[in-house]
Design a protein that fits this description.
Number of strands: 3
Order of helices and strands: EEE
Mean pLDDT: 81
Low-confidence stretches: none
Largest sheet: 3 strands, antiparallel
């Protein structure tokens, strides 16, 4: 069993963010479609933000500031 199983499963993807400054280039497909999705904490209580590409649906978790 994985240690960082989310409390709820998210089966939808976010809508494109209206502010293009919020999106980042995707490391997989290269298009600027990487959009912030949701925050979570791991067992050590570190805050992570999941970013998802709206083009190829690749995702990555990046550390987030504790004040988020």
């Amino acid at each position: 069993m994985r240690e960082d199983v989310p409390v709820e499963r998210r089966t939808y993807y976010p809508l494109p963010h209206p502010d293009p400054a919020q999106s980042r280039p995707c490391p997989v497909c290269g298009r600027p479609m990487l959009t912030p999705w949701y925050l979570r904490r791991d067992r050590e209580r570190h805050v992570w933000r999941r970013w998802v590409c709206l083009n190829c649906q690749a995702h990555r978790d990046l550390p987030e500031d504790e004040s988020a």
